[in-house]
Amino acid sequence: MFLTSYAATWFLPFVLPVCLYVMYTDLSRMKITNNANMALLGIFIVIGLIALPLNIYMWQLVNVVVVLIIGMVLNAVGALGAGDSKFIAAAAPFIAVGDLVMLMWVFAGTFIAALVTHKVAKNTSLHNLAPTWASWHQGKRFPMGFALGATLILYLALGILQGA
């Protein structure tokens, strides 16, 4: 991994509650709030100064802009929700560019696990534990924040365990 265990150790405790909140709000309301995305970006802006060398920190901030533009295009063509694209942009600076292939594998596994978990809960009596969640009644729409939040958590946890 290109992410250092030092950086991941700094980031994870602050990112974890935001990701859990994103997962919860997307499951319960099918919405990733702008406040959560701004909090995530704010965490990077503050903690990134401690966790990363300044030159890497600045390049990671460039990733926010690049990913946000890509996300806006994907949202415009209907491939991605607005909240999802903003969350991905806010999460982008936490990801080392050299780890993108590994991140895609983590996301693929997390997405499949989240999709199966959601489908099982939705189609069994487990959904009675949270009967008012909007994600149960969305047809084919899936609360992507569930998988995206889990992916960022797992990536940073892997960074702590296997980081440079």
UniProtKB/TrEMBL annotation:
Membrane is among the record's keywords: yes
Any GO molecular function: aspartic-type endopeptidase activity
This enzyme's EC code(s): 3.4.23.43
InterPro entries noted in UniProt: Prepilin_IV_endopep_pep (IPR000045)
Leader sequence segment: none
UniProt keyword terms in alphabetical order: Hydrolase, Membrane, Transmembrane, Transmembrane helix
Broadest EC class assigned to this enzyme: hydrolase
Segments traversing the membrane: 6-24, 36-58, 64-82, 94-116, 142-161
Record domain Prepilin type IV endopeptidase peptidase: where: 15-116
Pfam families referenced in this protein's UniProt entry, alphabetically: Peptidase_A24
Entry GO CC: membrane
Domain of life assignment: Bacteria
Protein's UniProt name: Prepilin peptidase CpaA
